[in-house]
Amino acid sequence: MTSAPPRVLTVAGSDSGGGAGIQADLKTMLALGVHGMSVITAVTAQNSLGVQGAWELPAEAVRAQYRAVVDDIGVQAVKTGMLASAELVRTVAGLLAGTDAPVVVDPVGVSKHGDALLAESALDSVRTRLLPCATVATPNLDEVAQLTGVVAEDEDGMRRGAAAVLEYGPRWVLVKGGHLPGDAAVDLLTDGTEERWLRAPRLANRHTHGTGCTLASAIASGLAKGHDVPTAVATAKKYVTGAITAGFPLGSGIGPVDHGR
Ligand code: PLP
């Protein structure tokens, strides 16, 4: 009998096209050698062209999935993604308040195609209920602007955005600067004391669907293995850079990142 791998739980939405959301999370976890489990918050009808429809699950179904997993199997790390509504944000935050496992919060707002994955009315619950549960929060620059009002246009702006997110209580924040112009994709990881800049070459590949989900899941996988936050984030950044390099066309729009074939 072999021993069980570390267990990681994703609390997120389903992407029927298999590129982002729960599907990207579980593929990342498989590739990184942890046991992936899921609490589905919403079902999207989605493909390479965007989100055609989204239906959130009742809070009771979210609570029941979470309890089923945590009370029997246990978790060494949790990742949250699309939470859809204020009610689900509050439900998930209430569940996470009771865990000792590290929590990676990807405060998903809007997809690359511009589809809203979180109601405007949920923003306040993300700030005051969800972010305080986070070991690491992973906003991109649009999410930093949405959550804090800080519009970052350069590295100094990223620093101000990171400080504003930390005010809400996550232990660490990883501000993803991939949308800034320049030759490198630059992210800032900080806990308010330490500051680490992570730089990767900008990749020409446009098939990047699921990048954010993949990065957050890779961080959670590293934390579940017992890595500290800077190590888990640096390893995850390498993983996602490789996954984007190998991203492939699918359908007639934006294809997914690749988790290794
Ligand atoms: N669909 C779901 C269910 C997601 O959770 C996310 C991102 O978190 C997306 C779509 C957006 O993916 P992308 O912006 O990488 O295209």
Automatic annotation (TrEMBL):
Keyword Kinase belongs to the record: yes
Pathway terms, separated by semicolons: Cofactor biosynthesis; thiamine diphosphate biosynthesis; 4-amino-2-methyl-5-diphosphomethylpyrimidine from 5-amino-1-(5-phospho-D-ribosyl)imidazole: step 3/3
Reaction equations catalysed: 4-amino-2-methyl-5-(phosphooxymethyl)pyrimidine + ATP = 4-amino-2-methyl-5-(diphosphooxymethyl)pyrimidine + ADP; 4-amino-5-hydroxymethyl-2-methylpyrimidine + ATP = 4-amino-2-methyl-5-(phosphooxymethyl)pyrimidine + ADP + H(+)
Pfam families: Phos_pyr_kin
Domain (Pyridoxamine kinase/Phosphomethylpyrimidine kinase) ranges: 15-258
Keywords attached to this entry: Kinase, Thiamine biosynthesis, Transferase
Record GO terms (molecular function): kinase activity
Domain of life: Bacteria
InterPro entries on file: HMP/HMP-P_kinase_dom, PM/HMP-P_kinase-1, Ribokinase-like
Gene3D superfamilies: 3.40.1190.20
Role, per record: Catalyzes the phosphorylation of hydroxymethylpyrimidine phosphate (HMP-P) to HMP-PP, and of HMP to HMP-P.
Name of the molecule in the record: Bifunctional hydroxymethylpyrimidine kinase/phosphomethylpyrimidine kinase
